[in-house]
Amino acid sequence: MQIKKDVRFFPVFLAATAGVILEIIAVLVDEIVVGNLFTDDAFASINLIEPFTFFEMFLAYLVSVGSAALIVRAHGAGDSKKMNEIFSQTILLCAMFGIGLTLLYVAFTPQLVLFVADDPAVYDHALSYFSVMRFYPLVDMFDTFFFTYVLYRGGFVHFYTAIVSRIGLNAFLSWQLGSVMGLAGIGLASVISIFVALLIKLTFLFSKKHGLRFTWHLNIREALSIAWLGFPESALSMYIVIMELAVNDFTLKNYGASGVAAVSVVINIFEFTFYLSEGLSEYEIVSVNDSIGKRSGQSMDHAIKTTRRAAIVEGAVLVGAILLAADVLPDAFDIDNPETARLAALMLRILAPTAVFVCLSRITAIFYQYTRRIPRTVILFGMAIALLPSLFAVLLGQFAIEGIAAGIAAGPFAALALMYGYVRLIKKEKLFDYSLLHLS
Question: Residue 322: CB partners within 8 Å, gap ≥ 6?
Fold first, then answer.
């Protein structure tokens, strides 16, 4: 009887996955247009700048993920006062973080670009692109919060309208402005398109589902508590920064700009597997928190089994998709050099099997995050995305550029194996053990 009241898998999974796919397309627009309009060096340069974008994403998710989840939890408890307080506090924090990070980027633009693009072949391209993208946090901080808030509160029409509009506008403006202004025009198109998407999402505030109002509320202790809850997922961005910095720096020094172009395709697909697994984690977040709220062990068991099976199926589908698309993906990024394209395709085939372990490590980490084992979440994500892929890529990349892809692929598998060994052999628990919550 109770199972009928559990969160249904497909509505949440499909809605979140479709949203993530559209977000990925929106992110890809810049790189596809650059690949078609400019050289491989220009394509490599915008990938070298990505660590700064991901650092901004880290701060945005740190503010937004826990806030949106707790707003939904307060809604379930019928506590409108708490909903208003968290909503208002998040708006203020988005403004503070966005302005602060933009000022930092503006003050140290040349030094930051030189740090990641210390090569004459890519420096000028990277500087041109970052000269506009340094203002991106002013908009994206708010957009990230409303991405999660509108989706969690059921504003699907506003959500999808915003994403589709962003993709179309960014594609049109990137081509037009990029042809005239170069990479600065590509960056300007991104800023304009995400600003329009934010305005569309803000129309949700006028709907009956919203029902909240802004008040001047800022509680530092509460903000830190929310940040701690959201930290593991926000840390995904920082882990990607670490991995990209390490792998790109090693590749640039050992294989040049053309090597960075080939490896950038591999890194993008590796990241996209994590993004696509967000549909799984969104279902898991809702279902696990629903189980905690109901204090139901039976409901939790149902949620865990459903998520685990779905992770294996999605991982297998992604493996097949990467293998089938390996020859096409370099062309999608318009890699000009045939040898660079060949290497990218070969490395994608090496990378493909890791998709299953990406999905499994993602759901394991999210389970730990929302069952109050946050240190395990931070460690598992860190090992799977940043530390082990970077370490293995540098070690194996000493022998051949293909070794970089093999190293990246080995990261999630090794991370999950190490966490499983720790939990089973040292803690004497199951991998998904919720007994400490005393739900029953």
Answer: 269, 273, 348, 349, 351, 352, 355
Residue 357 sits at φ, ψ, to 5 deg, of -75, -25
- What tokens does 242 get? 């670490």
Per the CB < 8 A criterion, the answer to whether 306 and 279 are in contact is: no
120 against 138, higher pLDDT: 138
Provide the token pair at 92: 């203020």
Q: Is the torsion defined by CA of 433, 436, 438, 439 positive or negative?
A: negative
Distance (Å, rounded) from C-alpha 412 to C-alpha 402? 18
Nearest C-alpha neighbor of 180 from the set 139, 128, 133, 135: 128
Local structure of 8: helix, strand or coil: coil
Q: What is the enclosing helix (H) or strand (E) of 38?
A: none
Provide the mean pLDDT of the chain. Answer: 86
What pLDDT is recorded for position 410? 97
CA distance 127 to 186: 13
Q: Which residues contact 232 (CB under 8 A, 6 or more apart)?
A: 365, 366, 369, 374, 377, 378, 381
Q: Residue 415 pLDDT more than 50?
A: yes
Q: How far apart are the first and last CA of the chain?
A: 16
Say yes or no to pLDDT of 187 above 80: yes
**Which of 3-17, 109-123, 292-306 holds the top average pLDDT?**
109-123
User: In whole angstroms, what is the distance from residue 266 CA to residue 150 CA?
Assistant: 32
Q: Return d(Cα 91, Cα 214) in angstroms, integer.
A: 8
Q: Which residue has the tokens 């041109």?
A: 128
User: Model confidence at 27, in pLDDT bands (50, 70, 90)?
Assistant: low
Tokens of 176: 């037009």
Determine phi and psi for 214, rounding to 5 degrees.
Answer: -85, 135
Two tokens at 184?
């600065």
Cα dist. 196→103, 177, 201 in Å?
Answer: 22, 17, 9
Q: Is the pTM of this model over 0.90?
A: no
CB count, 10 Å around CB of 430? 12
Structure-block tokens of residue 427: 């803690």
Q: How far apart are CA 64 and CA 73, in angstroms?
A: 14
